[in-house]
C-alpha cells in the first residue's frame, strides 16, 4: 500500500488559496455558489486508489474510483464513478453500453474536456465540460452511499460531499445527467 501524508486539519469552507491552482479555486467557488457543504483535507499527491485509502479513512468515507474512458473512435467519452475496491472490466461496461470497445482516454482528452490530469480525475471536473462531451456513469452501489469522496480537480486535496448534492445540485449546475450502471 502506498503511504502518503494526510493532514489532520480539515476545512469546511474555501481554504487558504495561496499556491493552489486556479482550477482548484474554481471548484471551491462553485461549491460555495451552489451552497454545497463539503469537508476537505490536503495531502501528498495521491496517484493510486491505494494511496487514497488513507484520505478516505481520514474523511470517513468509502474510497471512490474515478475512471475516464473513450470509444475506439475517440468521439465519445465517459467518466465512471465506482467503489474503490471494486474491479473494473471494460468488456462488462462495453456490453452494457452497446459499445464494441472502450479504452482509457489519453491525458490530452482529460485536460481538454475536464481540465484535469491523470490521478486527479473527479466528478467535479464536469464543471469544465461546458459542451457536454463527457457522459457520467455511476455504479449503482455508490447511490447507497451518503457521501462521495473526490478531488477538487487536483490530487493534493480531497473533499467529502453528500452524494445527493453532487447528483442533484452540482450536476444541475453543470448541465450533465448521469446513467446508473452495474460494474
Structure description:
This protein is α/β, with parallel strands linked by helices. The chain has helices at residues 22-34, 49-59, 90-97, 107-114, 163-174; strands at residues 39-42, 64-71, 77-83, 102-104, 134-139, 147-150, 157-162, 178-181. The protein has 5 helices and 8 strands, in the order αβαββαβαβββαβ. The chain has a 5-stranded mixed beta sheet. A hairpin with a 5-residue loop joins β2 and β3. The longest helix is centred in the first third of the chain and has 13 residues, at 22-34. The radius of gyration is 15 Å and the shape is globular. The mean pLDDT is 93.
How does the SSE layout of this entry go?
Elements: H1 22-34, E1 39-42, H2 49-59, E2 64-71, E3 77-83, H3 90-97, E4 102-104, H4 107-114, E5 134-139, E6 147-150, E7 157-162, H5 163-174, E8 178-181
Parallel strand pairs: 3-5, 5-8
Antiparallel strand pairs: 1-7, 2-3, 2-4, 6-7
